[in-house]
């Protein structure tokens, strides 16, 4: 039976795959998929740098870490003095 005898409801079944193909081709030509891949790769490299920073902090002297945290404002002056006094004893 030809297409036209099956009814108009069959038309979307033939148009949808063509539309999907055209949309994927358009996105590929615009660099959409490359952008997504580059974003994920950048996130991986950034997380590696953060892990390296943590490893470097482990190798630092305890006093350097306290000074660094105080300089960043993570701890107050009182906490800084307490930690310094505890570690020097």
Summary keywords:
mainly alpha
Structure write-up:
The chain is mainly alpha-helical. It has one domain. Helices cover 80% and strands 0% of the residues. The chain contains 4 helices and no strands. Helix 3 (62-72) packs antiparallel against helix 4. The longest helix is centred in the middle third of the chain and has 28 residues, at 32-59. It is rod-shaped, with a radius of gyration of 30 Å. The chain starts with 10 loop residues before the first helix and ends with a helix.
Short account of what is shown:
The chain has 4 helices and no strands.
Total number of strands: 0
* Gyration radius, rounded: 30 Å
- In sequence order, what are the helices and strands, one letter per element? HHHH
Q: What is the typical, i.e. mean, pLDDT? A: 78
What structural class is derived from the secondary structure elements?
mainly alpha
**Roughly how much helix do the residues carry, as a percent range?**
over 70%
Give the overall shape, derived from the CA principal axes: rod-shaped
The count of domains is 1
Present the secondary structure layout.
Layout: H1 11-30, H2 32-59, H3 62-72, H4 77-88
Helix pairs in contact: 3-4
């Amino acid at each position: 039976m030809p297409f036209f005898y099956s009814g108009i409801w069959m038309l979307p079944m033939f148009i949808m795959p063509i539309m999907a193909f055209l949309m994927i081709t358009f996105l590929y030509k615009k660099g959409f998929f490359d952008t997504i891949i580059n974003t994920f790769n950048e996130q991986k490299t950034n997380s590696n740098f953060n892990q390296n920073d943590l490893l470097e902090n482990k190798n630092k002297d305890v006093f350097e870490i306290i000074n660094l945290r105080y300089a960043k404002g993570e701890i107050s002056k009182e906490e800084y003095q307490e930690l310094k006094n505890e570690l020097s004893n």
